[in-house]
């Protein structure tokens, strides 16, 4: 991954967390906060996975048959699939932690 791509992703995550975090904790009770965190976490992970999917698709189109570039593109697309899996699992994980804590 290039430094500019990494810097862009870090800046995007920082900005989105500054914008979305106050809304996530605006609920009046603990269950409301946890529900908001579930939605926020799922959206953040799905958004990041979408960035990787777009990057991987663009790399694949621009690979021009070069095996090294095709492998990098496939790696980015695989990372996107893993990210979507984490986005689907995040609410389940938060619910499990909520049940363990007992709130």
Describe the overall structure:
It is a single chain. The protein is mainly α and 103 residues long. It has one domain (3-97). 86% of the residues lie in helices and 0% in strands. It has 3 helices and no strands. Helix 1 (3-24) packs antiparallel against helix 2 and helix 2 runs antiparallel to helix 3.
Topology:
Layout lengths: L2 H22 L5 H32 L5 H35 L2
Helix pairs in contact: 1-2, 2-3
- Please report which band the strand proportion falls in: under 5%, 5-15%, 15-25%, 25-35%, 35-45% or over 45%: under 5%
Oligomer: single chain
Globular, elongated, flat, extended or rod-shaped: what is the shape?
A: elongated
How many separate domains? 1
Q: Key terms for this structure?
A:
103 residues, mainly alpha, elongated
Compose a concise summary of this entry.
The chain has 103 residues and is an all-alpha fold. The chain is 86% helix and 0% strand. The protein has one domain.
